[in-house]
Amino acid sequence: MMQIGAKLLPTAKSLALCIHTRYLTTSLATDGLFAKATSNIVADVDSLLVNWDSKNAAWSRFHFDWLRDNCSCTKCRHPDTGQRVLRTTEDARPDVIQASIDNGRVDIKWRDGHDSQFLHSWLLEKSYCHNNIAHVRPPATTESPAAQTLWDADYFRKTELPSVDYGAYMESDEVLLEMLRKFRRYGLCFIHNTPANTEATGRALERIGPLRRTYYGDVWTMVAGSMTVNSVAYGTRCIPVHTDHCSLEDAPGVLGLHCIEYNGKGGETMLLDGFWVAEHIRQMRPDYFTLLSNVSIPYHLSYKDGVYYARKIVFPVNDKGEVVAAYLNHDDRKPLDEQSQLEIQTASGCDPNEAVKMFYNAIRYLHHVIYADQSVYNMTLAPGQLLVIHNRRLFHGRREFSGYRKLCGATLDNQEWGSKLTILERK
């Protein structure tokens, strides 16, 4: 028997494992890390240990079950759809008899005679059990914070707003890709010179993906002051910055807004990066950030044909603590309830009698940050300016105005923009 880390491993013979000694040795440190390793790949009882960088102890563990389940050859995946055709859960446990690493990939031969190949870049991207691999991992993916630029109002007072031209955008996939990359980075992009009508607006957004029908319709038209839909957006008063459709469990991720007629005073559009707000609060008031990233707020919207209800955390985070969305709509909030109370207590550890008070303090501070002069960028939307915003990141609002204003818009599911971006970047 040979020992690797804290595990007793069978010999290569008892494992029926034939390792290419040119690429694999067993000089691992006894703590199980690769700090003193000289090998590229090591076979364990039930997994492979891949050493990416010995000097910096960068390694990943990939279990045989996982590797066999994720073989991408045409025998295991449908050649056209990429869907799994291998029934891993129904087959016997996989057994490796040979493994090697060369030419930027890991090659595995299984006991049943099947061969699998895994590119280093793919393994690094998908690594789930690892140590210190951040410096060797591939560049950020579509939703990664590393692909984003967080901004406040001062940023765009000094820099041009991201934009593309409608004609080029409609004709060229390269310009569509440019637009989506700007959208990913900043959470918004303008499509200038868009014909001032609903048809052109819909066509422009359909370049990204299929439109999503909501209670406003597919491509909707809003004449401020008409109140044809039960929403304050159809009035003329100031609309606080918000994200749309918080009352839907799966809120749209893309929102297009196009002013097609305007004759009045006021009505400036307010824009604010919700991710910038989140990081600012995390830095300045971590106690409030803890509440805003853990406590769900109940939302509802009622109109003549429907009633919608959902809960949203203002700044939900992933398991790495990264903010993955921003939701805010004070007009549609329902009263904080017992679930909110329990979540506040869990997040803060405060006295139950103080829980709601603490959360309202956090909400007040959020408002303070939002409406600071450095935060909100103000601009007037003009006919021909189609504004496409990330509805799960960007806060938007409208200042009070008088006169006539006709707006049209539409939404898309959140996955659509990432899907289109991925396809275009693969070309």
Structure description:
With 427 residues, the protein is of the alpha+beta class. The chain has helices at residues 12-15, 64-69, 120-126, 153-158, 166-171, 173-186, 198-206, 274-284, 286-292, 338-348, 355-370, 414-426; strands at residues 2-4, 7-9, 18-19, 41-43, 47-53, 58-63, 96-102, 105-110, 115-119, 130-131, 163-165, 188-192, 220-223, 239-242, 254-266, 269-273, 296-303, 306-313, 377-379, 385-390, 394-398, 401-412. Strand 8 (105-110) and strand 9 form a beta hairpin. The chain is globular. Residues 1-39 have low confidence and may be disordered.
Globular, elongated, flat, extended or rod-shaped: what is the shape?
Answer: globular
Helical proportion? Answer: 25-40%
Amino- and carboxy-terminal Cα gap: 50 Å
Could you give the order of strands across the largest sheet?
11-12-20-15-22-13
* Content of β-strand: 25-35%
Low-confidence stretches: 1-39
How would you briefly describe this protein structure?
With 427 residues, the protein is an alpha+beta fold. It is built from 12 helices and 22 strands.
Any key phrases for this structure?
about 425 residues; alpha+beta; six-stranded mixed sheet; four-stranded mixed sheet; 22 strands; about 25% helix; globular
List the helices and strands and how they pair.
Layout: E1 2-4, E2 7-9, H1 12-15, E3 18-19, E4 41-43, E5 47-53, E6 58-63, H2 64-69, E7 96-102, E8 105-110, E9 115-119, H3 120-126, E10 130-131, H4 153-158, E11 163-165, H5 166-171, H6 173-186, E12 188-192, H7 198-206, E13 220-223, E14 239-242, E15 254-266, E16 269-273, H8 274-284, H9 286-292, E17 296-303, E18 306-313, H10 338-348, H11 355-370, E19 377-379, E20 385-390, E21 394-398, E22 401-412, H12 414-426
Parallel strand pairs: 3-7, 11-12
Antiparallel strand pairs: 1-2, 4-5, 5-6, 6-10, 7-8, 8-9, 12-20, 13-22, 14-21, 15-20, 15-22, 16-19, 16-21, 17-18
Helix pairs in contact: 6-12, 8-9, 9-11, 10-11
